[in-house]
Structure formats: structure tokens, C-alpha cells
Amino acid sequence: SGTDMWGGRFSGGPSAILQAINASVDIDQRLAEQDIDGSLAHAAMLAACGIISSEDARGISAGLETIRADIRAGNFTWSPALEDVHMNIEAALKERIGAPAGRLHTARSRNDQVATDFRLWLRETCARMEDGLRAYQRALVTQAQAHADWVMPGFTHLQTAQPVSLGHHLLCWVEAAERDIGRFADARARLNESPLGAAALAGTAFPIDREMTAKTLGFDRPMANSLDAVSSRDFALEALSAATIAAVNLSRFAEEIVLWTSRRFGFAKLTDAFSTGSSIMPQKRNPDAAELVRAKPGRIAGALQGLIIVCKGLPLAYSKDMQEDKALVFTAFDDLELAIAAMAGMTADLSFNREAMEEAAGEAYSDATDLADYVVRELGLPFRDAHHIAGSVVKEAEARGVSLSELPLEVFQAIEPRVDEAVFNVLTARASMESRTSYGGTAPVRVREQCALWAERLAQE
Ligand code: ARG
């Protein structure tokens, strides 16, 4: 009750409604490990600085470790009446070791405590997202290596555009994941400063050593401004932004998996391990996991938006509004972790239909650009004129209901007399793909180079 927690100032307990809106322990108990680590560092520092006795520090540390063991074993009873993870652990410590427990909170507040815990949690979680994305990249590179010279249609506007290598397409998602990893690494580097010792908002009169706690907890340095230390949440916004962008990137490949595994495309298959059935239609194989990854940005971007709105307009320093940060961040990262794992799993699980892809790659005049390029190269015409000639040829082919390579040479020559037999060499999807040897292009020679670079790089990680 209020009298127990807040002591002298209070004579009555909180209403049930206050308790219900105020308690966060159901959510922030996920910070227990970080909270204990922070308290251990703080207690050791207090003793080193002569603020508490070494004996008390030892008692506090031993008590905290028994609490940690009980929490890990699932033998700890969390009490909403004690509001949050911090008060629950402190109260348990008091029960276990008695009076010295009361010295732990010297030169500290829950405001710097929670900021410390949360930064520690996000540091570890961002690193875990990076690891997950690395595994996803490995799965993509493995598939890309195996399919470096498989030809498929490349699309713009989801209309057949030009033939590309399946390996090339898959490596695109490796590049995107690399930027996502970079964003998490950046967020992690920027948030790695210690708020501990900022106390409630103004610092403390006790002769503490903030360098020491920062170092113990693996932070690069103590935060230089006590108000900033307890009131900034842009580190969480930054991590959520990185999470949102990563989720959006994943959702795009997820959508392609939905398309490719559909009957209409018929490009790829997921095994039973990643397919679901229908309760009514016995024939169905649905790509539910891909659809759910496609949906995840709704929740993750929603969490970012939610925290942006919580933080907007908050004056310095701590306000209780900030307590709402954790539920949003936790669900967003739970969702993202699962989405990354699902994408890595599906990527490895996919098998591709070579014939269907190659056939589709040659459809819809995907070689029209190659015809125009041929006219430029062989006849020396400006590209704009060549574009016009190729367009006329496509129009004629369309009217006859045939592909460019099925047209008799005379049809080409009626439009441009200097076209000869050699034109047919460029009019296949494979030739088109193989011709695009520019750096970053889709020719299998380039794709294999990129696969090798990625394989080497990922082996080093
Ligand atoms: N449960 C609180 C939070 O997550 C901890 C900080 C509480 N501080 C305070 N002055 N009420 O934000």
C-alpha cells in the first residue's frame, strides 16, 4: 500500500483504480535481469565510494542474486501493489536481507534506474535483431548462390519488365537487411550511455562514481546531463524506427513469397513446414507466415507512432507518461524477432520452379529493350529512335499474337531494313539476363561475384 511504499507522507492506500492504471509490473518484469545488473553495479560503486559499507554491499549483492535465481526459476511472486519491477525487487530484497536493503536506493531514483534498465535491454535486443538478420542473410545468400543463373521476370509496376536472375533478386534483400543491421548497430551505439547516477533529475550530493557504474554495465560513458539521462526516450524511438524500417523491408519479400507461391505465378513452393491448410477447402496450401510478416509493419509502425505521440510535448524531466514506453517497445521487438525468424525459415524452405520462371521471363515482350539496344549497338541509331522502332515491332507482334522471336525477319525489316538474322540472338530471356554485365547488374557473372563477396563477409561475422 501507499503507506508501505511511500512511508511517512501517506496514511491511506491507493484506490483500486489508481493501482490498476499505475502498476506496470506485468510488463516491466521483463527488465528484471537488467534491473538486478544495474543494482549490483550501483551497490558496488556505493561501497567503493564509501557511501555504504562493504558488508552491506555484499549482503545486497548476495540477496539480489537469490532474487535473480528465483525469478529465473519462475519462483518469484510479482505484486501489482508494488507497482513496478524496481519496487518488487527492492521489497523482496528487504524481506530477504533486512535493513541493508534500504541503503541500495541511496543516490539513485527509479527515474535513472528505469532509463538504465531500458537502455541495457534495448542494447541487447538490437544486437539480437542483428544476429537474426544475419541468419536471414545467410539463408538468402545460400539460395542466391544456387540460383545465380536462373532467369525470372523482373517487374516494374508489377508488370513484366526485363528478365533478371533469381539470385540477383534474392541478393537485393540481402542488401536491404544489411542496412537494417546497420541501423540497429547505430541505434545501439548511440544509446550506449549510462543514465545511472542522474538520480531523480538533478544528480546527487553523494560522492558517487558514475564512470565506475557506466563501465561495469558496459556503457561507453555516463550521460553528461542528468535531466537528459532521465527524460530522453529518443533512444527507444530510434530503435523502433529501425524496427519499423526492417519490418517494412521484410514485408516486401513476404509479399513476393505470397505472390510467387500463388497458382497464378507458380514460381515457388513452400513445404508443409511453412504452409497451412484450409478448414473447408481440402486442396488449399496457404502462405500464412508470409502474410503475417506482411502484416507486421501495422503493429510495429503502430508502436513507433504510439511512442512518438507519448513523447511529443513532454516537458522535462521524468513524467509517468514514459512508463508507457515499454509495452510498445516490447511488443514491437517480439513481433520483429518472430518476423525475422519466419523470413529466414521461409527463405531456406522455398523451392523454385525453373521452367515457370523462365517461361514467364520471356513473356510480355520483356526482350523489347534488348531489341532497342541491338538497334543502337548494331545500326548506330540514337536510343530514342531505336525505342520507337522496337515499339513498332512489339505492336506488330501483339497484333499477330506472337512473341518477338516468333516474328519473321521480314517484319523487322519492313520497319527497319538493316535488321538482320543476328537480331534473334538477343531475343531470349536468358540472353537478355546474361547481357546485363554492368556493375550491379543481373548477369550471372556479376551475381556470382556478389554471392562470393557476401558469403565471405557472412563467414566472418
Ligand atoms: N515504472 C516507472 C517507469 O517505467 C519507473 C519510474 C517511476 N518513477 C517515478 N518517479 N514514478 O517509468
Summarize the structure.
The chain has 461 residues and is mainly alpha-helical.
Protein described:
With 461 residues, the chain is mostly helical. Helix content is 63%, strand content 5%. It contains 20 helices and six strands. The chain has helices at 2-6, 16-22, 25-28, 32-48, 54-72, 85-97, 110-146, 166-191, 210-216, 226-231, 234-260, 288-311, 325-349, 354-361, 368-379, 383-400, 409-415, 423-426, 429-435, 444-460, and strands at 151-156, 159-165, 193-194, 221-222, 268-269, 351-352. The strands form three sheets. Strands 1-2 form a two-stranded antiparallel ribbon. Strand 1 (151-156) and strand 2 form a beta hairpin. Helix 4 packs antiparallel against helix 5 (54-72), helix 4 (32-48) crosses helix 7 (110-146) and helix 12 (288-311) runs antiparallel to helix 13 (325-349). The longest helix is centred in the first third of the chain and has 37 residues, at 110-146. Residues 24, 28, 84, 110-111, 114, 318, 320, 322-323 line the site of arginine (ARG).
